[in-house]
């Protein structure tokens, strides 16, 4: 895993912990990034003991919003 993936993984983990979701807007030709986000989201969710749902939503400006939602098997403690 390269540095960019490590940073993205860390951001996803923090977002799942704090907000239970992660969103990123990408250009439609960034398919590799979309696939990476899905893979990292599933890995992080699995490590946290839960699952992830995802969607790629086309935006009016031509961009694509990638959405990941974390669902814990057991409730997570509330963020401090």
SSE topology sketch:
Elements: H1 3-19, E1 21-26, H2 31-47, E2 50-58, E3 64-72
Antiparallel strand pairs: 1-3, 2-3
Give a description of the structure.
Helix 1 (3-19) crosses helix 2 (31-47). By secondary structure, this protein is α+β, with helices and mostly antiparallel strands. The chain starts with a helix and ends in an 8-residue tail after the last strand. The protein is 42% helix and 30% strand. It has two helices and three strands. It has a three-stranded antiparallel beta sheet with strand order 1-3-2. It has helices at 3-19, 31-47; strands at residues 21-26, 50-58, 64-72. It is globular. The longest helix is centred in the first third of the chain and has 17 residues, at 3-19.
């Amino acid at each position: 895993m390269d540095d960019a993936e490590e940073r993205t993984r860390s951001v996803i983990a923090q977002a799942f912990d704090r907000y239970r979701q992660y969103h990123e807007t990408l250009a439609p030709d960034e398919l590799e990034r979309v696939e990476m986000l899905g893979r990292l989201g599933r890995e992080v969710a699995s490590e946290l003991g839960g699952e992830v749902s995802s969607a790629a939503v086309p935006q009016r400006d031509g961009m694509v919003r990638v959405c990941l939602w974390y669902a814990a098997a057991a409730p997570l403690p509330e963020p401090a």
